[in-house]
């Protein structure tokens, strides 16, 4: 059972609302170093709370949250709300504008094995620990994770459309996406949202590290005595979208390898035992290549580009302990064969090694390889939403960074507290 609550959000003060484009930021795990440098120049940008600078950044973020609250830079809403969140966007080459509709609320951060919130990716331990430190220090959640639910009746959509007639904010973000946020305060409508989601499972589309950190924080705080029926540290900020009638786009995330001592002749000989290798010429050819055949990838090495296609007769050797649905996934095969069998990295090492990096931008992959920073890049194709759902329902996970749901939610539009005094409210009225 999905336990949702509305939230008394902290938001930038009304007089700062018109500057919101300059105060919001990409999510902590997608913001680039150059983007961070630019955003840090604004002393009020939310990046200072989501990706604080310095070795003890979480302590500087702690001080900053207190300052912003005391100075009225951040102001808490008086009553809990459901925040309706629409994202209008176009994919490259498209003329028609798409709209992804959803809403932001709080959900109880239940353990994975309770199978209320279903994950589909492995996480990177250091990133989870970093998020726990930040949550513990600041007592605030800067950005929502992204959860998917299925409602064939689309019962909530008319109420979301109605709320959008009076938006709180409308702006263009760093992706070129038009972001619109509205508010639902009426307890009877909020009750409908909570009731609709209650019997459903939620598939976590984006934010595995932040949610895993929230689960750890909930357990850490579970022994603290409170007088309320609702514990602030139990709840986590999430953006919910219906998989029915919505625009849910998944873009590929490529792999970069930075390990040293890898010789081309040795590596290609090992690759050829598992894949057919076809030279393409330069990287420009690969940028336009359509990967129609499953288990095929692009390979960038120095100034050359290749297409590698898996030899299907060796399929029985791929991840033999995994269910067939999982074994057949491109990225599972890639990680098991190339990074596991050929490069000798165990699954745990793949999650922690600095030699393996993830990059959505094809041009950056080319730049990193041709500059000699990275040894090689593997270019992947996108996974299908149906595959994500199937893996989740099996209780399985894919390699880290298997999906890139587009567009990303934005950080800094609103903030959720895990401070009990700020959180307390008579939530019983939403369940009567």
Structural class: alpha+beta
What is the straight-line distance between the termini? 17 Å
Spatial extent as radius of gyration: 22 Å
Shape: globular
Q: DSSP helix count?
A: 16
Q: Based on DSSP secondary structure assignment, what is the total number of beta strands?
A: 21
Overall pLDDT = 92
What does this structure look like?
- The chain is of the alpha+beta class.
- The chain is about 30% helix and about 25% strand.
- It has 16 helices and 21 strands.
- The protein has helices at about 20-25, 35-40, 45-50, 55-70, 125-140, 155-165, 185-195, 210-220, 265-270, 285, 325, 330-340, 345-350, 360-370, 385-395, 420-425; strands at about 5, 10, 75, 80-90, 100-110, 115-120, 140, 145-150, 170, 180-185, 200-205, 235-240, 250, 255, 275-280, 295-300, 305-310, 355-360, 375-380, 405, 415.
- The strands form five sheets. Strands 1, 4, 5, 6, 8, 9, 10, 11 and 12 form a nine-stranded mixed sheet that branches.
- A hairpin with a 5-residue loop joins strand 9 (about 170) and strand 10 (about 180-185).
- The longest helix has 14 residues, at about 55-70.
- It is globular.
């Amino acid at each position: 059972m999905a336990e949702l609550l509305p939230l008394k959000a902290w938001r930038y003060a009304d007089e700062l609302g018109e500057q919101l484009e300059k105060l919001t930021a990409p999510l902590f795990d997608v913001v680039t170093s150059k983007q961070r440098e630019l955003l840090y120049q604004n002393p009020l940008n939310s990046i200072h709370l989501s990706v604080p600078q310095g070795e003890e950044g979480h302590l500087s973020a702690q001080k900053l949250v207190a300052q912003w609250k005391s100075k009225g830079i951040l102001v808490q809403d008086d009553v809990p709300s459901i925040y309706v969140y629409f994202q209008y966007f176009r994919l490259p080459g498209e003329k028609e504008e798409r709209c992804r509709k959803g809403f932001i609320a709080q959900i109880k951060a239940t353990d994975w094995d309770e199978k209320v919130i279903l994950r589909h990716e492995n996480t990177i331990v250091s990133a989870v620990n970093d998020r726990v430190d930040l949550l513990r220090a600041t007592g605030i959640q800067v950005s929502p994770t992204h959860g998917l639910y299925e409602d064939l009746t689309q019962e909530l959509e008319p109420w979301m459309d109605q709320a959008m007639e009076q938006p709180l904010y409308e702006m263009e973000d760093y992706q070129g996406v038009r972001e619109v946020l509205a508010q639902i305060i009426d307890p009877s409508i909020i009750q409908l949202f909570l009731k609709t989601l209650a019997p459903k499972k939620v598939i976590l589309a984006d934010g595995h590290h932040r949610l895993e950190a929230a689960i750890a924080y909930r357990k850490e705080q579970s022994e603290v005595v409170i007088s309320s029926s609702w514990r602030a540290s139990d709840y986590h900020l999430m953006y919910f979208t219906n998989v029915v009638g919505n625009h849910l786009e998944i873009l590929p995330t490529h792999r970069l390898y930075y390990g040293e001592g890898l010789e081309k002749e040795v590596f290609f000989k090992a690759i050829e035992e598992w894949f057919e290798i076809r030279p393409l010429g330069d990287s420009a050819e690969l940028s336009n290549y359509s990967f129609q055949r499953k288990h095929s990838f692009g390979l960038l090495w120095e100034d050359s580009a290749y297409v590698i296609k898996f030899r299907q007769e060796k399929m029985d050797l791929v991840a033999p302990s995994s269910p067939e649905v999982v074994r057949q996934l491109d990225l599972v095969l890639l990680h098991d064969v190339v990074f596991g069998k050929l490069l000798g990295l165990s699954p745990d090492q793949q999650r922690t090694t600095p030699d393996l990096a993830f990059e959505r931008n094809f041009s950056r992959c080319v730049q990193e390889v041709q500059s000699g920073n990275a040894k090689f890049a593997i270019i992947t194709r996108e996974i299908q939403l149906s595959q994500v759902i199937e893996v989740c329902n099996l209780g399985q996970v894919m390699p880290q960074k298997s999906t890139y749901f587009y567009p990303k939610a934005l950080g800094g539009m609103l903030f959720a507290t895990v401070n009990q005094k700020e959180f307390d409210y008579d939530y019983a009225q939403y369940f009567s």
